What does this fold into?
Amino acid sequence: MRKKIIIVGAGVAAVHAIKTIREHNPSIDITVYGEEPFYPYYRLKLSKNLMGNLAEDGLLIQTKAWYETHRVNFYPGRKVVRIAPDQQTLWLADGSCDMYDSLLLANGAANNPPPLETGLAGDLYTLRTLADARRIQKRVLEKSRIVNIGGGVQGIETAWALCQHQKKVLVVEIGPRLFPNQLDEAAAAIVKKSMEAFGVQVLTDTRITKACGEQACEGVVTADGQRIDCDMVIYATGIRSNLDILEGTSIKRDRGVLVDDTMQTNIPNIYAAGDVAEYMGRVGGLWSIAMAQGKVAGSNMVHYPLFYRPVVPVTVLNAFQLGVFSMGTIVESNDTFSVIEEDIQANRYSRIFIRENRIVGAIVIGDLNRSNLLKRAIEKEVEVNGRDWTTVSVDGLLSHLRRQLERQS
It folds into this structure.
């Protein structure tokens, strides 16, 4: 009897696992159960297309025919609710069950709701799934003032989509600045200034504690008691891994499913990848990490050893007529220094972080042509020793990096 792999979840980690499995093994059975009633799609496009075309076919990672070509038994809208590792069996919400030889948990995460005091049944939204996006798109037409809780990429892209459709938007960030983990103070100030130029209000160091209204949302209240009128709230305040199906099992988990560098859990024939997986104390939460982990898991599931190497986090934003790029370590410490170039009036800013003679991080606003070069230099750990870079311009450092990369190629 042919071996069978089951993949729980239908995101980018699943797609890259399928690709890799088929590269090494054209005949093993692959079954995918996806909770959503859609084929895998680009989740990153949801905020960009929020007020545009949300048709499934325009968002797909691969065409539906691709799964047939790759001999994948794909079942959208089939939620897995329980697994029994000792029986190598899983159960679905409709009461049916299925058996596997190897199992990949790629069932992702959900947006983590802020702790709000509220009795509202509606007008409190988040943007994680295509269904979420369609729900917001339908309801926002009748709304006029929206509060976005969360000042990260998704919150800002959502604000940009809404303000282009004449909605009054307020973005509230609990941290000291927008993009608190990706931008320094100077870069965050440029983004804030650009948002305000388009009429979007921004509050930082602010926590929303309550949503008001009986039949519908009428406003929110901050921790210091300030009342802000609004008729819709959208939150993007981090994620939490989907771990419910692990209840009653011995699969080890903390914030996510604990995996080693092969993406294997503590049970030899069960793997995890993407937003549900926790590697070395961290849940990735990024598209690029899910892609890499899916590839590693798929390869090891068909006995082609491959080891995961942590992916350097990358953030790219195009909104409010700004291009923003951030990658790697963006904090200056005792063993790190940076080279800075800025023209605040022109909304241009570059800062490159160096540690132990290697580029470890970068922030660029404005000229994103620099981002590809910096990304390659960080990933390839290009050395920049031999000069006092504190006296050199950003352009001078970029020229050096370009020459170093040419020598390596």
Q: What stands out?
A: Residues 124-235 form a domain with the FAD/NAD(P)-binding domain fold (CATH 3.50.50.60). The longest strand covers residues 336-343. The chain has nine helices and 26 strands.
